[in-house]
Amino acid sequence: MSKFVRVQIFAVLITAVSSLWALKCGTLETSWSEVWAIFTGSTEPLTVLLRELRLGRVILALLAGAALGVSGTILQKILHNDLAAPEIIGISSGAGCAGLLLLFFFPESINLLGVAAFAGGMLAAVTVYLAAWKQGVDPARLVLSGVAISTLFGAFTAMMMMLNSGKLVGIFEFTLGGVSGKGLVEVRQSLPFFAVVFICAALMKRRLDILSLDDSSAASLGINVELSRLTALALAALAAATAVSVSGLLGFVGLMSPHIARKLGSGSAGKQLLLAGTIGACLCVTGEWLGRIAAAPRELPAGVFLSAAGAVFFLILLLGHRRDGI
């Protein structure tokens, strides 16, 4: 059994344990037998409630985390930058800002939240890409322009929240990140978008390996480098935007997951996508149950824990890149 298979199995097991714990934890105390009843088709009122709400939240956390892990992996592959991630280069901020615009001014069109988030994320991605272009994408310029764009969207988001303070019920949690109040209904609505993301990522794995080479080497293998990179960028934006539409602004998952996967020796793009997606799912579902137990009986958004962990992780990465002038 190869190292990758062993690591992947271990990651799946940890994710499964975290998911089961997330099903058990909450303001409503449940036993392991009641958790098991969720999967046996029991029609007891408590079991139905747990299945519709708590199971739905766990599934959404898993899907959102996996999508952010995939998005971060794609960005780091095509931009040749270990610091590239949807949260760092502004994709998540753009998606979140567009989502908030919809929630504030067109709440009756909430079914279009995914479309709005994708449009905002893609706008941010293209803007950062163009700003970083200087006879090719410069890694340092990309990180700096991404921070600037992310800050700009963040300022616009803060301004909207101040001007619409009477509409902040449920909005504040969106900016912190979490799946509180969601259920199987949201799973059914978002599942087609997540399916598109994961299928397209699997189909692009070979092209991502080629794009991870320098541009001249990639072109010599017969691909249109810029078109392929823009296509991959659109897929990364779709992955991040889909996650944002169901879980809000979960910070740094797209940065941490690919790094951890790479450190564990995931190798090719296909393997890294799979492992980073699993790790991202594990991070999000762990943040989900931590939020329920840390301040019980009150509940904290998962994004609080993920942002704190991610900020420390990012600082460590920056210290490691000091010699590169970033």
Number of helices: 14
What is the CATH C level class, in words?
Answer: Mainly Alpha
* Mean of residue pLDDT values: 84
Name given to the CATH homologous superfamily: ABC transporter involved in vitamin B12 uptake, BtuC
From the alpha carbons, calculate the radius of gyration and give it in angstroms.
19 Å
| Secondary-structure element pattern, one letter each | HHHHHHHHHHHHHH
Walk me through the structure.
There is one protein chain. This protein is globular. The protein has one domain (3-324): ABC transporter involved in vitamin B12 uptake, BtuC, CATH 1.10.3470.10. The model has no long low-confidence stretch (mean pLDDT 84). With 326 residues, the chain is mostly helical. The termini are far apart. Helix content is 74%, strand content 0%. The relative contact order is 0.18. Helix 1 packs parallel to helix 13, helix 3 runs antiparallel to helix 11 and helix 5 (113-132) packs across helix 11.
How would you concisely characterize the structure shown here?
By secondary structure, the chain is an all-alpha fold.
Distinctive features:
single chain, 326 residues, mainly alpha, ABC transporter involved in vitamin B12 uptake, BtuC
